[in-house]
Amino acid sequence: MTPISIAFLPLTDCAVLVAAKEKGFAAEAGFDLRLIRTTSWAETRDRLVYGQAEAAHLLAPLAVGVTLGISQHRCALAAPFKLNVNGNIFVMGTEFAQALDPDPIRRLEDPLATAHDFASAIGLYRRKPIIGMVHRLSSHALTLRYWLASAGIDPDRDVSMPVLPPSFMSDALRAGEIDGYIAGSPWGLVAVDQGLAETVMVSARIWQRGVEKLLAFREEWMEANPEIVDRLIVALSAAAAWCDEPGNREELARLLSAPEYINLDPRIILPSLSGRFPVRAGAPLADVPDAMIFHREAAGFPWRSQALWIYSQFVRWGFIKASAENEQIAGNVFRSDVYRRALGASGLPMPGASMKLEGSLSTPLPVGSSSGTLTLGPDRFFDGRVFDPARIEEYLAGFAT
C-alpha cells in the first residue's frame, strides 16, 4: 500500500476524501490514506506548503494566491482535480435580517434585489456590519465581494470582514463578535438551526457553478510522483461519483458526522447534500438543487478559465497587480493536463477544451467531449456578466468598482 497524507478542514465538501477512505476507494487503488483534520485554512495551507501532507483539501483562490505569493512567501501549488462545485451559505443574525425581505426564500430567488436590500439595511444597522470570513483568499470572500458590490456596497469600506475558522463562526455570532458570516456547509446552517441567524444568500445563486475546493499538491511533489497522483485522482473520481448519488446521501452524512471528521449531527449535514435548506428556524425549506456538486457535469475538471476568473478578482480588489506573468502563473495552477492524463482511459466524459466562457450558460448544454457524452450545467452569474478568459482587461473595465 502507498501511504499518503491529505490535510482537510471539517466541511461537507471534504466528502470525497472521506468516502475515498471509508468506502474503500483509496484502499482499492492501493493507498493507505491518512486524513489530517485541521482547524483553519491557514493551518491546512501550511501543512501542505511545509510538507506535513502530500496533498490538501484547499480553497481554490488560496491555491492561486499562494502560488502568486499574495501576502505570503510564494510556493508553487498545482490542482489537477476539483473536489466540488458550490456549497457556501451566507447568514446574518436575526436582528440584521429583520431589515431584509421578510420572505427568506424570496431572498434567494432574487440575489440582485437582496443585495440592494442589504445595502439599505447597512444604513439602518447600529454599527458597520461585521461579517465573518473563512479566509481573505477564498471563494467565499470573492463571491461575497462580487455580490455586495453589485448594490454599490464597498466591501473594504462599508462592512468589516474578519477571518475566523468556519467551525468557530456560530459561537462568534452568539458572543456578538460578528453580525453574520459566510462559510461552507454545514457551518452556515448551524446558526440557523440554533435560531441565531437566517440565510441571506447561497453561493449557488451568485454563481451557479462556482469553483470551490481543490485537491492541491506542491507542484514539485506532483511532478515527481506522476504515477501516485494519477492513481489517487482515479480513486477520488470514483469516490466523487459515489458521493453524487442521491441514494448515498444519508450514509454520506453519517460518515461525515463522525468525531474524526465534522463531528456534528448528520441532521445538520444532510441539507447541503440534498439541496433542501432551512433558511430560518421554523420556516419552509428552500430548494437549491445545485447546492453542492461532486461529480456530474465533469465537476472535478479544473478549468483554467476558472483559475483566471479568480485572478481577475484578485486584480479587481487590489490583491495583486495585473500582468501577463501573473495571469500565466494563476492559470497554470489548474492542471487540466494532469486530470486528462489520469482519467483519459477511464471512459469518463472529458471536456475537449481547458478554458471556456464562464457564466454564459443559462440552460444545460451538451458540449464536445473526447469520450462519452458531456452536458455542462447552467453557470450564470446572477448579474448576467460573462467572463471571457481571453479578455480579462475588458471584463474588469466593465465593473464600476
UniProtKB/TrEMBL annotation:
Subcellular location field: Endomembrane system
InterPro entries per record: NrtA/CpmA_ABC-bd_dom
GO CC list: endomembrane system
Keyword Transport: yes
Source superkingdom: Bacteria
A family per Pfam: NMT1_2
Main location: membrane
UniProtKB keywords: Cell inner membrane, Cell membrane, Membrane, Transport
Record keyword Membrane present: yes
Name of the protein: Nitrate transporter
Record's signal peptide: none
